[in-house]
Amino acid sequence: MSRKLADRRSRRRQKLAFWGIVVMLLAFGVFVGDQRPHHLLLLHLEEERTEVRIADLRGEHAELEARHERLMKDAFALESLAREKGLARPGELVYRIITVPPDVHRATAESLAALARQRADSLARVSADGAR
Fold it and tell me: Could you write out the DSSP letters of every residue in 66-87?
């Protein structure tokens, strides 16, 4: 009887050791291996972002294809685009109107006013010297 009891205990220990090893291997795979749950979640999120980006790029590509077709068929649209980019036909003069910020207007006006005062003063001196 003690032999049977020892065999049962031995089998129970073997089963416990087996399941302990299985649990340790599973835990190792989950927490240390390449298939970690958070790693898989990050890969899944990256895949979703990539798919959204691909869809956006496909839409943009379709818009650019339509614009290309329109430009190839419509000479006026092509010329308008070329003029927006600053291109001109041979022999044409291009005049560019550059907007000046308001603070530059003020500084320019002040410096011109100072220059005008200096010239007026020098003219006044010349006319005063000439009148003597």
Answer: HHHHHHHH-HHHHHHHHHHTT-
Query: pLDDT tens digits, the chain, 132 residues: what are they?
Result: 577 777 888 888 899 999 999 998 888 777 776 667 777 788 899 999 999 999 999 999 999 999 999 989 998 888 888 888 888 888 888 777 777 777 777 888 888 888 888 888 888 887 777 665
* Domain tally, the chain: 1
Structure tokens given for 18:
């087996």
Q: Is residue 120 part of a domain?
A: yes
- The whole domain housing 132 covers 98-132
Residue 6 lies in a domain: no
Tokens of 57: 């790029």
Does the residue 4 lie in any domain? no
Handedness of CA 28, 30, 36, 40 (dihedral sign): positive
Separation CA 120–CA 114 (nearest Å): 10
What would the two tokens of residue 49 be? 């972002």
